Amino acid sequence: MSDSADLSRRERQIIDILHAQGSATVAQVQARLPDPPTDMAVRRLMHILEEKGHVNRKGRDGREVVYASIQSKARAGLHALKHVLDTFFDGAVDEALAAHLTRKDARLTDEQAARIQRLIDTARQEGR
């Protein structure tokens, strides 16, 4: 699969829709795009994404082809998170978490805090 760095803004939007939906037809993608292009333009973009190795045809929904991202949502999320960490926080997870938690609208439940602590404890035990 190609690197997601080779995607245009519109291609990235389509991939994001496919990750959010799991899979989608051209009409479903078009309905979720901001300032949507024509259905032919979306079809062309889907074809380009298929050629680049980012999407594949999953089947059909009536006459419509159903597309899905080749990369799993979880893997794409990890890649995006690494990009954000590297770009904005010099790879420092603690800095990113601090930035998130110090926002005025940040909310951290007791359950989330306990889970974070368990993850930290596990990482320390495993030497990560």
Q: What report would you give on this structure?
A:
The chain is mostly helical. The chain has two domains: 4-69, Arc Repressor Mutant, subunit A (Orthogonal Bundle), CATH 1.10.10; 92-128. 59% of the residues lie in helices and 12% in strands. It has six helices and three strands; from the N terminus they run H-E-H-H-E-E-H-H-H. The chain has helices at 9-21, 26-32, 39-52, 73-89, 93-101, 110-125; strands at residues 24-25, 55-61, 64-69. Strands 1-3-2 form a three-stranded antiparallel beta sheet. A hairpin with a 2-residue loop joins strand 2 and strand 3 (64-69). The longest helix is centred in the middle third of the chain and has 17 residues, at 73-89.
Q: Can you tell me the number of structural domains?
A: 2
- Write down the secondary-structure element order: HEHHEEHHH
Q: Helical stretch count?
A: 6
Tell me the overall shape.
Answer: elongated
What is the arithmetic mean of pLDDT? 91
Radius of gyration: 19 Å
Low-confidence stretches: none
What share of the residues does DSSP label as strand, in percent?
Answer: 5-15%
Largest sheet: 3 strands, antiparallel
CATH homologous superfamily classification of the largest domain: Winged helix-like DNA-binding domain superfamily/Winged helix DNA-binding domain
Walk across the major sheet and give the strand order. Answer: 1-3-2
Report a brief summary of the structure:
By secondary structure, the chain is mainly alpha-helical.
Question: Layout of SSEs?
Answer:
Blueprint: H1 9-21, E1 24-25, H2 26-32, H3 39-52, E2 55-61, E3 64-69, H4 73-89, H5 93-101, H6 110-125
Helix pairs in contact: 2-3
